Amino acid sequence: MTYCVGLRLDDGLVLLSDTRTNAGLDNISTYKKMFTFEAPGERIITILTAGSLSVTQTAMLRLEEAIDDPEADESTSILKAKTMLKVAEIVGNALAEVSSDISGKLKRMEQNSASASLILAGQRKGGDQRLFLIYPEGNFIEATDDTPFLQIGEHKYGKPILDRVIRPETSLEDGQKAALLSMDSTLRSNLSVGMPLDLMVIRRDGLCVSQSRRIEPMDEGFMAMSSAWSGALRDAFTRIKL
Questions:
Q1: Is 89 inside any structural domain?
Q2: Phi and psi for 149 in degrees, rounded to 5?
Q3: pLDDT tens for residues 185-233?
Q4: What's this model's pTM, rounded to 2 decimal places?
Q5: What is the CATH number of the domain that holds 84?
Q6: What residues have CB less than 8 Å from 111, skipping those under 6 apart?
Q7: What is the domain range of residue 116?
Q8: Exposure of 242 by Cβ count < 10 A (0-12 exposed, 13-18 middle, 19+ buried)?
């Protein structure tokens, strides 16, 4: 499984994904789940993936193929679409088609179907920054001021801190902190989520990657944050009286 989270804040977007893919306890691999498509100064699009690796990799390859097609236009290429809503439609259609194709093959082989979900984030020149959750069927929902974050994968362990902390006015620094602590809670509670982690920040109207970081298992900063969070929780617990 996996865990990915995206925050849509007033100052920009914060995106975080793990890299673990497993098919049983004896078959654990690491695969990147964050994909970025960039035309600096024009648009920035990042996609986080969760679910069947065959579905997500094929969907990403089809999107890349459409971008490279010399006959690509605004209806087929995410780098030419006029709005982020149209980008979401193109990505959703690609995901739905791949999910249907692979599930059909698995069904004929009497195996379980395959599915995946995506988080799409980005901004085009002249448009607002937007954040979408795209379901296996290709339909999607968008982050709003009331719900400025979206999650895919093993999301239940990391949701409480986001519910309590994240607001549109949250700073990018605090947004990164909350996303990382959300991931830390998930790492501690679910073995199907694992490091290294990929963290990205896209500042509003920057139209490029503002910050990109790979966090390895023994990263000192992340370990210190995890330890401090655990200590703060223990201290708060001991202070609460029945």
A1: yes
A2: -140, 155
A3: 999 998 788 899 999 999 999 999 999 999 999 999 999 999 999 999 9
A4: 0.93
A5: 3.60.20.10
A6: none
A7: 3-217
A8: exposed
